[in-house]
Design brief:
The structure is a single chain. The protein is an alpha+beta fold and 348 residues long. The protein contains eight helices and 18 strands. The strands form five sheets. Strands 2-3-7-8-11-16-17-18 form an eight-stranded antiparallel sheet. A three-stranded antiparallel sheet has the order 1-9-10, with no helix packed on it. Helix 1 (56-74) packs antiparallel against helix 6 (183-197) and helix 3 packs parallel to helix 7 (294-319).
Length: 348
């Protein structure tokens, strides 16, 4: 079952063998690797120096069990998921939510507030209208009246959360929640927590463009993360980032878009206008210290900064002390912008 938009082709933050990160002549330590489909994209896990008793089969089984649970909670593509059932519920009273769903909703609301609505977990009606969600899509620009009607159903202020007992209340019964912008991160965080619970100290756990890393790779070096050139016509490396004990997430407009009338429309929807953002910003990578929900937060922040654009996004990232790396599309090539925190990370 899917969690992410159907037209997303896996935009990997690839693990690479980089000469600058590998000791010449070094023999690699034991490493387990598993990959597979999930959420309409792929997952990848590497465990260097695996704990005793961990095999590729048990690693795969544990990872896929966790990811199935994420889908069963957050997916808008699975009609049986908790979120899908919640979206079908027309009640405007308090509706209980699970301990798995509540923290994702809460983090989405925090991102919405700090970004003044650039990130909005109620943007689902607009995402679906533009053909980037579940259901039929036609690669056509919606009529203005349909955009306006969908905008009336959007607004994080129309959603209230209660901690004890965990519940939500919507001002409109047709409010529709979409948590896809944090789904990859939730998967990466859950895989990381499970790996640590079974004794893994050196690993990389990724769902598409979001990952968690801890410790060192099989050669005893930081994990080398390749950030893609944001070009849909090629798969090449813009920059290699050596990291350990970090969460990393990249969001870009170069894999999930359509063209109509000679114009390009990306899946990043501005909740304030109801339309895809128009800007030169092609991708954003966010790097955070590893923590319980750090991949989920990095995932949401990368989307937030993409929607805000290079000027407002860079200002927010600096104000929040975020490690953020922006790639801008310009005539004849690409230009990079980095935050102060990212500069420090890149030379560690």
């Amino acid at each position: 079952m899917r969690l992410l938009p159907r037209r997303v082709r896996a935009a990997w933050l690839a693990l690479v063998a980089c000469a600058g990160l590998i000791a010449c002549g070094a023999a690699p330590d034991p490493q387990l690797e598993v990959t597979g489909p999930t959420m309409g994209t792929y997952y990848a896990v590497k465990v260097a120096r695996p704990p005793a008793g961990l095999t590729a089969d048990t690693l795969r089984a544990g990872v896929e069990r966790l990811l199935s649970g994420v889908i069963a909670t957050l997916s808008t593509y699975d009609p049986a998921s908790e979120l899908s059932r919640l979206n079908r519920n027309p009640s405007t009273d308090w509706v209980p939510v699970s301990a798995a769903l509540y923290p994702v909703l809460a983090q989405g609301q925090r991102l919405s507030a700090v970004s003044e609505g650039a990130f909005d977990i109620t943007v689902g009606p607009l995402v679906n209208l533009w053909g980037f969600g579940p259901g039929a899509h036609s690669d056509a620009v919606p009529a203005p009246e349909l955009i306006q009607a969908a905008r009336e159903r959007v607004g994080y202020g129309k959603l209230e959360l209660r901690t004890e007992p965990a519940a939500i209340r919507r001002q409109r019964g047709d409010l529709y929640i979409d948590l896809s912008a944090m789904g990859e991160g939730e998967g990466a965080d859950q895989m990381a927590a499970w790996l640590e619970s079974i004794g893994a100290t050196d690993y990389m756990a990724a769902v598409a463009g979001t990952l968690r890393v801890r410790g060192k790779n099989a050669l005893g070096r930081p994990w080398g993360i390749a950030i893609e050139v944001p070009d849909p016509e090629q798969r090449s490396v813009q920059r290699i980032l050596p990291v350990t004990d970090r969460a990393v997430s990249t969001s870009g407009d170069y894999r999930n878009f359509f063209k109509a009338g000679g114009k390009r429309y990306s899946h990043h929807i501005d909740p304030h206008t109801g339309t895809p953002v128009e800007q030169s910003l092609a991708s954003v990578t966010v790097v955070l210290p590893a923590g319980t929900d750090s991949a989920r937060r990095a995932d949401g922040l990368a989307t937030t900064l993409m929607v805000m654009g290079e000027a407002r996004g860079l200002a927010l990232a600096e104000a929040q002390g975020l490690g953020a790396y922006f790639i801008l599309r310009e005539e004849g090539g690409f230009r990079e912008l980095t935050t102060t925190a990212f500069k420090r990370i890149a030379v560690e």
